[in-house]
Design a protein that fits this description.
Layout: H1 3-37, H2 43-47, H3 60-91, H4 96-108, H5 113-127, H6 134-159, H7 162-170, H8 175-203, H9 207-212, H10 232-241, H11 248-279
Length: 282
């Protein structure tokens, strides 16, 4: 065996061990949650409201609240994030100002979620007088999700070969027709990936909704966008740390439902991404 082959084998072995170090703990966590939470997953647990101080019943209001928050976050962040990325990549000139904006977008993705929660509380709950509501929580989560969506969309657009744009423009198409028909269809898989990553993060966040929307105990469903709701992340925190004598399986069951919701979102994204990649091949 020559030295090049030996170095290659060593590199592959090291990469395999690193992969195991990442994957094995995740699998162990999933196994632990499933093992302790599976017994709690019943029809009543998924469709009933909590009762008896959240020691009995189910988590249906928290599931509905989480779905409403994810939907509101997507409705506010997705159009704004995609359009912002399109402007930065396709229309904005490469100036110091635009470079500062791109740098700021990258830096914003690293801000702790608690800071977004305080910002959303100050702006939406207090200053704009929305109160603790679905609208305030969705806007806060949308602001937190924007940097990831913009960055992922920008990279997806930049990955489309420039020749596609040149051919379209040379045939007399406008810049917007070029973006809409020759760039976006090929960038959709990357956009979907960034969108699902940001929404998955938003679905599991506790700090932003703690200040803007989450209710400690609210067994009824919301009637408008200005109502508070229960949410799975905050409900999990409450029954695990704030309410005594809650059966352990309820905590792990809530965590399992939250994990399943995030995995379902990722599964839908994978299916859609595969569908669009199959339709548009480079």
């Amino acid at each position: 065996m020559n030295r090049a082959k030996l170095r290659q084998n060593i590199a592959f072995t090291v990469l395999g061990l690193i992969t195991l170090l990442v994957v094995v703990p995740i699998l162990l966590v999933l196994y632990y949650v499933i093992r302790h939470g599976w017994n709690a997953i019943t029809w009543e647990f998924l469709t009933a409201a909590p009762r008896n101080g959240m020691k009995e019943g189910g988590i249906y209001p928290a599931i509905v609240g989480t779905v409403l928050l994810i939907t509101g976050t997507m409705a506010f962040s997705l159009p704004l994030g995609i359009l912002s990325a399109i402007y930065l990549v396709e229309y904005a000139r490469d100036t110091l100002f635009t470079r500062l904006i791109k740098l700021s977008v990258v830096n914003l993705s690293g801000i702790p979620s608690i800071v977004y929660g305080l910002f959303g509380f100050t702006l939406f709950v207090v200053f704009m007088r929305m109160g603790a509501s679905i609208l305030a929580g969705s806007l806060t989560l949308a602001i937190m999700s924007l940097p990831v969506i913009i960055t992922a969309t920008k990279e997806a657009l930049e990955a489309v070969p420039m020749v596609y744009r040149e051919i379209s423009l040379s045939l007399g198409a406008t810049r917007w027709q070029t973006v809409r028909s020759c760039v976006l269809p090929y960038a959709i898989p990357g956009i979907l990936t960034g969108t699902v990553l940001s929404l998955s993060r938003a679905a599991g966040e506790t700090a932003p909704i703690l200040f803007t929307v989450a209710a400690f105990y609210l067994p009824r469903l919301p009637r408008s966008m200005f109502d508070q709701v229960m949410a799975l992340p905050y409900h999990l925190y409450v029954i695990s740390t704030q309410v005594p004598n809650v059966p352990e399986k309820f905590s792990f069951g809530t965590g399992l439902v939250l994990i399943a919701l995030v995995c379902l979102m990722n599964l839908v994204s994978i299916i859609l991404r595969a569908h669009f990649r199959k339709k548009k091949q480079w």
